[in-house]
């Protein structure tokens, strides 16, 4: 990898927190395209303010799910959780797109359970029991009958 490509990958890792293998390959073969793609992503993530960050991450997580792109699903799920998304919001987002393909839901639920467990463990190192359901300040829903 030449110096220009290496610096671009470092910039992406610094600004997005990761640069998967395909970005590293693209940096070698077409760094101009990768740079434009990265600028577009950063513009949508950081500059545009019409949607809250949590909602943007939930949308990207859901789209990753429906395209069966598990690495993207996990990244955007973690980001949504960090932005305050609740497990119920995640499930509802996935359920609302179920008509696109039930297999997406079935494929991503194990990944969701894994990431939720990791998130809860990292935010609760003492292992204290947590209440499931609504986030602080959010009402619990009544069960559908």
Write a compact overview of the structure shown:
This protein is an all-alpha fold and 145 residues long.
CATH architecture grouping of the largest domain: Up-down Bundle
Helical amount among residues, as a percent range? 55-70%
Report the mean per-residue pLDDT as an integer: 84
Give the termini distance in whole angstroms.
59 Å
General description of the model:
- By secondary structure, the chain is mainly α.
- It has two domains: 3-47, no CATH class; 53-122, AhpD-like (Up-down Bundle).
- The protein is built from seven helices and no strands.
- It has helices spanning 3-16, 21-29, 31-47, 53-66, 70-82, 87-96, 102-122.
- The termini are far apart.
- Mean pLDDT is 84; it is low at 134-139.
Summary tags:
mainly alpha, 68% helix, globular
Secondary structure topology:
Layout lengths: L2 H14 L4 H9 L1 H17 L5 H14 L3 H13 L4 H10 L5 H21 L23
Helix pairs in contact: 1-2, 1-3, 2-3, 4-5, 4-6, 5-7
